[in-house]
Amino acid sequence: MSTAPYRDPDLTVEARVADLLTRMTVEEKAGQLSQYFYMGTGERVPDDFDLDSLPPEHRAFVEQPRMVERAVASGGAGSVLFVREPNLANRLQRSAVEDTRLGIPLLFGFDVVHGLRTIFPVPIALAASWDPELIEAVQGVAARESRAVGIHWTFAPMVDVTRDARWGRIIEGAGEDPVLGAAVAAAQVRGFQGDLDDEHVLAGPKHLVGYGAARGGRDYDDADVSDADLWNVYLPPFRAAVEAGAANVMSAYMDLNGVPASANRWLLTDVLRGELGFDGWVVSDANAVRSLEVQHFAKDQTDAAARALDAGLDMEMTTFEPAFANLPAAVRDGLVDEAVLDRAVARVLTAKFRLGLFERPFVDAAAAAEVLDAPEHRELARTAAERSVVLLKNEGALLPLSDTSAQRVAVIGQLADSKRDTIGPWVFEHDTAEAVSIVDGLRHRLGDDARIEHAPGVGIPGRVHPSPFDAMDPSVQPTPADHDDDRELDRAVAAAAGADLAVVVVGQPQNQIGEKASVSTLDLPGRQQEQLERIVATGTPVVLVVLSGRPLDLRWADEHVPTILQAWYPGTRGGDAVAAVLFGDAEPAGRLPFTWPRHVGQVPATYAHLRTFAPEDQDARYFDGDGAPLYRFGHGLTYATFAYAGLTVGTDRLPVGETTTVSVDVTNTSARDGEDVVQLYVHQRHGTSSRPVRELKGFQRVAVPAGATRTVTFELGPDQLSYWSAATRGVVQDTTTIDIWAGGDSAATLHTELEVSA
């Protein structure tokens, strides 16, 4: 019996795809471009269950898994997402390969954003490590755990640049800077994909493009982005992800400059494929194709499907009936050329062949537990959390603590002993019970010799608009309705007054940031500010630990609290990591990946603004207060101290198009080994367009022993000095004078110059 060529693993992927396409009906092709959420657990609904007794919206979700299973069995689904149980994945996969005419396997996708079972620090925290090698290793572990349970593809990394702290999804990205964002994006893609063996997954950078510029920081709102910002700020991380080999890209929900991103031909075809060179497949964000009608862009669902496909969107992610189910009719009616349909299907099939799914469609369910429980994964989670912590302030060198100074420790705050809030949002397969809270971490570190008293203190009010993700997570524990704030506040103050040290943990619960968690204020929720002020008034030394994924209003704390530690949401081993940093077992060397504003009135904020008129008044734009940020981009303290000297450029005059080097000496001037993040900034004094006052162009995280000097070298050439200009509508590199600074943050003072000549 002869085997169809597409079944022959000795043929090239291209040949197998071409053969399979010739055998497919238009309906089967459309099915390959449909990705369904699977909203069930795999449990069968009893045949005698009275569905009609349920409200329509509840009935739809009960019936949804059956709908997906029917689509899989009939060849109407190319991918399924939200399946993370290996036996269920195998059951659905068996239906795809055995019940359908051609036996095309499914792609299983999932949101693996900062870990699957082992939860690492949230992405904005990983960016704060300024350590691409660490980030690559972290996502390599996330990929290994994901593949072990049958997941082939992650909807990550999120590479949206944002400069508005109100936006909830700031937590999923790398902050405000395109150079840092590009480095983090590439590292994540390398970590997820590796060489696409059986321990790696396909990466899906998202959301193309400008989603982080949503109007007012409001999730899902439209974005109005200048061409200059689009090319110079928002696209570089996508370019880096593509150059790192990203197999997939996800389009955004929102309108970009008046055109929905998921049906924007200029964006998906001219820019992504033409300019960035992307050769994988593009998937929509959830229900974004159906939303084209909601957004009053498409006339109906057939129009939405046809326009999205023609624009360059290859696969639709949907919860219920896909708009792409209308593609066969659209082809027959001449609304879409079948060649356009074939092109999209070929891209999806290519990914399946590259992964080896035709030869190895099933996952070894029995082996998954060993991978998920690997102790080395948890140790990497601790290391990642330690390297992500940012020491914002350490007045009087209160840190690192000594064992003798912390015999009676009061740990204050509801978040301090919340395992669920320690690991952060956007996780679904975690084991909350194994997470280490800050209270746990301090008890592990200090042992039985110290007395640690935890006082929850004031409650944290819930959301006005509930999180849709809370219903999926029974471990979320809001402040009880009968919580007595006044009584618990008094208890917390008394505990602090009777202690040698008060560790006060403030911030936002994990469900107050992320998708659908934009915010109108950066104030500490509830009465946390009042509680902090009363504890400081006791005179007990205070260490403030902040759990958040966005900057919060810390003006009072910066003035009155000697030590402030930004711990983010540090993950499964987060409490151990925070304790290690507090006691100096680990060095705090994280740096801020965004500008930290004083209050919400300063957002959006970025260090890389233009000089504009009267630059000497930059921090006096508001008549009623200081316009400078509370903490600068790149800021972070260490227990060691560093000095910079010897900033040199490889040449005095650099011809356009040529590359030179910039070197700087970094000396550890303390008696303690330490790490520093060396940052290189430039400014172009004149040229075709005005350029930002400073732009990050390179960075290295380096370990420098006590008393030692390290020379750090960066490249400077057209990759760093070219930019897109609105004056020429293209990329230029000017003959000009370049100011160069090197140092430990965006206010670095060590300076030199470079002439760029024709």
Overview of the structural elements:
The protein has 758 residues and is an alpha/beta fold. It has a six-stranded parallel beta sheet. Strands 11-16-15-14-12-13 form a six-stranded mixed beta sheet, sandwiched between helices.
Descriptive keywords:
single chain
Spans of 5+ residues with little confidence (pLDDT < 50)?
none
The tally of strands reads 26
Count of discrete alpha- or pi-helical segments spanning 4 or more residues: 23
- The rounded Rg comes to 27 Å
What profile does the largest beta sheet have? 6 strands, parallel
* Proportion of residues in extended strands: 15-25%
Q: Outline, from the CA principal axes?
A: globular
SSE layout and pairings?
Layout: H1 13-23, H2 26-32, E1 34-37, H3 56-73, E2 79-81, H4 86-98, E3 107-110, H5 123-128, H6 132-148, E4 153-154, H7 178-193, E5 202-203, H8 227-234, H9 236-243, E6 248-250, E7 255-256, E8 259-260, H10 265-275, E9 281-283, H11 291-294, H12 301-311, E10 316-318, H13 327-332, H14 338-354, H15 368-372, H16 375-388, E11 390-394, E12 408-412, H17 419-423, H18 438-446, E13 451-455, H19 485-497, E14 501-507, H20 528-537, E15 542-547, H21 555-560, E16 563-566, H22 574-582, E17 642-649, E18 653-655, E19 660-668, E20 674-684, E21 695-704, E22 709-716, H23 718-721, E23 723-725, E24 730-732, E25 736-743, E26 750-757
Parallel strand pairs: 1-2, 1-10, 2-3, 3-4, 4-5, 6-9, 12-13, 12-14, 14-15, 15-16, 18-26
Antiparallel strand pairs: 7-8, 11-16, 17-19, 19-22, 20-21, 20-25, 23-24, 25-26
Helix pairs in contact: 1-14, 2-14, 6-7, 6-16, 7-9, 16-22, 18-22
